[in-house]
Design brief:
Chain A: One of its GO terms (cellular component) is membrane. Chain A: InterPro entries: Fumarate_red_D, SQR/QFR_C/D. The complex is a heterotrimer of chains A (about 130), B (about 250) and C (about 130). By secondary structure, chain A is mostly helical. Helices cover about 80% and strands about 0% of the residues of chain A. Chain C has one domain: 3 helical TM bundles of succinate and fumarate reductases (Up-down Bundle), CATH 1.20.1300. Helices cover about 70% and strands about 5% of the residues of chain C. Classes of the chains: A mainly alpha (about 130), B alpha+beta (about 250), C mainly alpha (about 130). Chains in contact: A-B, A-C, B-C. Chains A and C meet through helix 1, helix 2, helix 3, helix 4 and helix 5 of A and helix 1, helix 2, helix 3, helix 4 and helix 5 of C.
Chain lengths: ~130, ~250, ~130
């Protein structure tokens, strides 16, 4: 029993480096890419401050449904999602909501699902 | 600045006397202060002149022994390095947070010492230098560059202020915590040490480096400017490398 | 040594972070991901719209222009900048860069990262304003 407890306490966290690596990479993307992405796509575009053809249906499609578009989605959707998942998981622990084992599955699982969805959309658009 | 100018200030001390009262209570003291009065001087004045029942730890008066840590207005401080001249109005003195209080300002730091011992904060060398022989002196050799790598992290005086500043330690007392993880990193960075593998087994646990969320308050309160938050997070990079290597080696 | 020989205190109450300005700023930093998630969901919706066709795409742009969505995305923009300001200063502390035995001053690393933000913005300007026109 004591041996078992010792084993549990010294369990190596093999998954944590992965989550932390994704968190860090996502943090860089969030900080370096997202200010410009949000400014141009979520502010200037809907306010009509971009040239009419800049993100027309045809141009937006050809930009997004391409190999660079695939990489772009990875950097501005998937990576930041894992960054957010990590911070939300730890944030929930900070305010004692739920339990960490379940929160981990929900958060990283959610980020994985949305990432697959996002990349899947690019592939679907590329193949059509 | 005229250090002779004496005025009076009021400090509130959180008392806990388990023999006479089950609950802690606040007690106010008026005392004379000048520009050079440290918080430790104030506590000594209380103890000697006003109230001999007050308990607190202290020793060196010069921020090297690390025993006079207390909370001042909710922030962990060394009593000897804190000056009353820097405080206007209320000065509330409490025992260090996140540690069980034994009496008044004296806390039980056993858990910190356990976490410290767990990371083996000493040189581990499979082939140590031979016993000193004056004819053929053999010593550990280290270049200034090698020293520079860990020097900052070697300034820790084990005062425990970072544990009182760390909410993750407050939320989960099994977390090894800032000072222990910093000391582990300090020895891992030391060119004379070969114990990194043993320490990595402790660091790469959920309660090791991975419980840290870089709140960073530990580094703010550290009286020796060790920057434990940086050390812990460099420890994450090391733990990640360690895991990758273990993965490839199978 | 028995690991559980010493006394353990119960966890902090969930409002611990309200007691100090430093902890409130920490929580604000952690909360920057909330508007980020909102923007990301908007962006995903835009991708779906783009896949569906030209009408959906125009509909999505109109949706993005509705006051509440625009306001939340402006919040996301502010959050991304606040995140950048807090994240960039951590980087040199986590990964100190050493060149020829000397560590690079923190300010250089931080300035380099802000330069990255500007370069990306200029890239977008070039892609969407200059060559798109």
């Amino acid at each position: 029993m004591n041996m078992h407890k010792h084993d549990v306490q010294h369990k190596q966290a093999f998954d944590e480096p992965l989550w932390w690596g994704l968190f860090s990479a996502g943090g860089v993307c969030f900080a370096v890419l997202l200010p410009a992405v949000i400014l141009f796509i979520a502010v200037l575009l809907p306010l009509g401050l971009l040239p009419a053809e800049a993100l027309s249906y045809e141009r937006a499609s050809s930009l997004l449904f391409s190999v660079p578009g695939f990489l772009f989605v990875g950097a501005v959707v998937c990576m930041p999602l894992f960054h957010a998942a990590h911070r939300l998981r730890h944030g929930l622990f900070d305010i004692s909501v739920g339990n960490d084992a379940l929160n981990k599955k929900l958060m990283y699982g959610g980020a994985t699902l949305l990432s697959v969805l996002a990349l899947g959309i690019v592939v679907a658009g590329f193949l059509r | 600045m005229n250090t002779q100018q004496i005025s009076t200030k009021q400090v509130s001390v959180k008392r806990y006397l388990p023999d006479s009262s089950a609950e802690p209570f606040w007690q106010q003291y008026e005392l004379p202060v000048d520009d050079s009065t440290s918080l430790l001087d104030a506590l000594n004045h209380i103890k000697e002149q006003l109230d001999s029942t007050l308990s607190y730890r202290w020793s060196c008066r010069m921020a090297i022994c690390g025993s006079c840590g207390v909370m001042v207005n909710g922030i962990p401080k060394l009593g000897c390095k804190t000056f009353l001249r820097d405080y206007e109005g209320d000065i509330r003195i409490e025992p260090l947070a996140h540690f069980p209080v034994q009496r008044d300002l004296v806390v039980d730091m056993e858990i910190f010492l356990e976490h410290l011992a767990a990371v083996k904060p000493y040189l581990i060398d499979d082939n140590p230098v031979k016993p000193y022989d004056p004819k053929t002196p053999e010593t550990y050799q280290q270049t200034p560059e090698q020293l520079e790598r860990y020097k900052q992290f070697a300034n820790c005086i084990n005062c425990g202020l970072c544990y009182s500043a760390c909410p993750q330690f407050g939320l989960n007392q099994e977390f090894l915590g800032p000072a222990a993880l910093t000391l582990a990193h300090r020895y891992n960075l030391d060119s004379r040490d070969h114990g990194k593998k043993e320490r990595m087994a402790e660091l790469n646990r959920h309660d090791g480096v991975w419980s840290c969320t870089f709140v960073g308050f530990c580094s703010q309160v550290c009286p020796k400017h060790v920057d434990p938050a940086a050390a812990v997070n460099q420890g994450k990079v090391e733990a990640a490398k360690h895991t990758l290597i273990a993965l490839f080696k199978g | 040594m028995d690991k559980s020989s010493s006394q353990r205190l119960p966890p902090l109450k969930r409002n611990w972070w309200l007691k100090h300005r430093f902890f409130k700023l920490y929580m604000l930093r952690e909360a920057t991901v909330l508007p980020l998630v909102f923007f990301t969901l908007c962006f995903l919706a835009g991708m779906v719209a783009l896949l569906q066709g030209a009408d959906s795409w125009q509909g999505w742009i109109a949706f993005m222009g509705s006051p509440i969505v625009l306001l939340l995305n402006l919040l996301a923009l502010a959050a991304s900048l606040f995140h950048a300001a807090t994240f960039f200063v951590l980087f040199p502390r986590v990964m100190p860069i050493r060149i020829a035995g000397h560590s690079l001053p923190d300010q250089v690393t931080v300035a380099g990262q802000w330069a990255g933000v500007v370069v990306v913005a200029l890239l977008f300007f070039w892609l969407l304003v200059r060559s798109g026109a």
